[in-house]
Amino acid sequence: MIRNISEIRPFEKKLYLSSPTMHGDELRYMTEAFETNWMSTVGKNIDEAENRAAEMIGVRYAVGLGCGTAALHLAIRLAAERLYGTPETGRGALAGHKAFCSDMTFDATVNPVAYEGGEAVFIDTERETWNMSPEALERAFSLYPDVRLVVAAHLYGTPAKIDELRAVADVHGALIVEDAAESFGATYKGRQTGGFGDYGVISFNGNKIITGSAGGMFLTDSKADADKVRKWSTQSREAAPWYQHAEMGYNYRMSNVIAGVVRGQLPYLQEHIDQKRAIYQRYREGLRGLPVSMNPYDEKNSVPNFWLSCLLLDEDVMCPAQRGELSYSYTSAPGKTCPDEILGALAALNAEGRPIWKPMHCQPIYRGHAFVAAEDGADVSADIFRRGLCLPSDNKMTEAQQSRVIDVIRRCFE
Ligand SMILES: *Cc1c(COP(=O)(O)O)cnc(C)c1O
To answer: Using CA of residue 83, residue 84, residue 85, residue 86, what is the dihedral sign?
Structure first.
């Protein structure tokens, strides 16, 4: 429990979980769009950002879209049409079908399954990387052998066990949509995340490791798929003199102004990763000896981008704590603490932490959906949500600031 919380001197400027960091080139490319009047969803910034991103990730094509959620929607629709054919107008491409989805993720990963009329079945998390459990996925196929689509995310920038997930999916002839929104720049066995799925997605939302203020990209090696996504994202206009529409369309294309920011940020991805890795390592050092562990990764096969540093409390240090739908309570006890107490102490320091992303199968919107754990009664997602938290991981955080964050966290265990 933390004593004398009122005596914590707050930072003058709020320390964020993860906030945008601009460098200068972004403004130059935005200005170029402005001065040449390419203030549209067409232009050089889009072409350059797409080509550079594709090259960095090692895929043939990247299609710039308004946000990562839009990219996920089109990836999931594309997968669904490949599996089940083009639906009638007004009917989703996944209508009547289930899809296996990461459970511990942001809801943008899984909502597009519902946009297309499908039903998400949530797959439990494994402890080694906090991503979709290959064992639980295997079990899900034995329970629902007709399913052909897997939507898997790399949480907090840590690569999932991609080979294991792929092996299970392949046995059942299933496609994988890979949500690399949080993991741009992270690698698995030397290859970039985003390039493993049948379709991949990255995001340039303001809180991601690099940002366009908004934006996302769809990733593929197939020219036909890239062309289709580009067409769908610009309202599915056919090559006719008038507005002609044979397919459902959306206004999902990336703006050339946003693309200017993305284009300016891309060269700084590695610098941001290096800063985030240093933050992760300083937390690991600074919190050594406490009954906690950091968000884990497969040190042999993967290199995360360290987007967010997270903490997991040992069970025996947890004080009595409950969480309702919208609020929480806990009972302080000497030598014990809980994520909500630590988050309160960080808030007193004017530093932003956050609970672990609340699992999808615990969300009111998905109540009633199936949840598959690796074994009966297990619920790793809920356990990590209960005992874990995200720490301030802003790449502009100074070592002195981080030392104070670490000091406040340590005091919670007194
Ligand atoms: C941010 C995020 C998205 C969505 O990206 P937007 O660009 O914000 O639409 C999708 N999945 C995950 C895991 C994310 O963190």
So the answer is: negative
